[in-house]
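Retry 2 of 3 after timeout on previous attempt. Resubmitting structure tokens to design endpoint.
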């Protein structure tokens, strides 16, 4: 089954409208630090334009960029799962326009509306799985034997 590419495509129009009403437009300049690994995850974003780099702390070194997200992608999933702490850090690569959501309001909406909640949880789970697969592929390219990503 192909993954739904945008969160709003994962739900019926009436539910999409309910979720959209909770978001607000933000405009973020280049090099804006959005969150830090290990801190409280209290919001998420749908990127309208621009790019955001996800990074991870590396002891004794500068944070390593693990992925760059762009237009239409959701930034943040840690807000959905206890203990609601960020697993990565995030910073804008250039100017970014996004729709920002308060996590507690969206979690409450997901609890009140099982159809919307199922769509959000499923979309986030598929997104996490896709990103983990991408990370695995990148790690194999970096550290695996030559041709290791050519498997099934």
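Retry 2 succeeded. Sequence:
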């Amino acid at each position: 089954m192909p993954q739904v590419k945008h969160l709003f495509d994962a739900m019926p129009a009436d539910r999409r409208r309910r979720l959209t009403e909770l978001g607000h437009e933000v405009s973020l300049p280049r090099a804006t630090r959005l969150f830090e690994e290990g801190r409280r995850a209290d919001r998420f974003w749908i990127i309208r334009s621009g790019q955001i780099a996800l990074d991870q702390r590396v002891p004794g070194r500068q944070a390593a960029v693990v992925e760059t997200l762009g237009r239409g992608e959701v930034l943040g999933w840690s807000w959905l799962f206890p203990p609601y702490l960020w697993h990565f850090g995030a910073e804008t690569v250039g100017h970014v326009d996004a729709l920002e959501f308060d996590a507690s309001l969206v979690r409450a909406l997901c609890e009140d509306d099982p159809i919307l909640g199922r769509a959000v949880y499923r979309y986030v789970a598929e997104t996490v799985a896709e990103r983990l697969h991408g990370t695995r592929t990148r790690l194999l390219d970096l550290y695996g034997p030559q041709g290791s990503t050519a498997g099934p």
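Attempt log closed. Helices lie at 13-20, 103-112, 114-143.
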